[in-house]
Amino acid sequence: MTRKFDPELLYVECSRCGQPVLWQYGTTTKLLNLAGIDPASLDERCVIMSEGCPGCTPDKSSFTTQVIRLNKEKEGRRPMPATAN
Ligand SMILES: [Zn+2]
């Protein structure tokens, strides 16, 4: 069963000033497409780090972004338990 996750719900944070970045709805999806990242491979444990935001670097119009997965505390793969509900 496939769970639908809306990539627009991902938290975006500026890696320079640490502020949450709010951008237009649809921007995240567009960025993921540009980066060749399949939105279906993401979930709510992912955050997007942006190298700069309109707040701290207003002279830039585009920012390098990368997706960070928060649950990577252990090396090696652990099987993900299926969500039981
Ligand atoms: Zn910033």
From TrEMBL:
Protein's name in the database: Uncharacterized protein
